[in-house]
Amino acid sequence: MINPISNISANANNAATGTTQLTNISEEAEYNPHLEKVKGFLGRTLRVTISDTRVFEGIFVCTDSHVNLILSMAQEFRQTNRRRVGLIMIPGKHIKKIEVKKHFSRFGTFT
Known about the structure:
Blueprint: E1 6-9, H1 12-17, E2 21-24, H2 33-39, E3 45-50, E4 55-63, E5 69-78, E6 81-90, E7 95-100
Antiparallel strand pairs: 1-2, 3-4, 3-7, 4-5, 5-6
InterPro entries: LSM_dom_sf, LSMD1_Sm, Sm, Sm_dom_euk/arc, snRNP_SmB/NAA38-like
Pfam families: LSM
GO cellular component, one term: NatC complex
């Protein structure tokens, strides 16, 4: 089960008013320094290389204690082909490399 960094919950009172309450649940999980570092990249664009050489690029929205990643607005890259995949979960056991986008150079390299 994926434990999001922030959980959105709405009760009957919130439903009546049309508001949504954000509840931070990160304090409930055991402290893991590696997971804390990964949480620092929330909302950033990641490029993730997996064990079968595919590369996914998208906005990092969620992780769990197994370092499974969820990317939104993701694209899959295979050799010279690219396709949009939208929302995707990448199992942590298949992740070989994670890159955080700072900016693109003129030549399309990821830095």
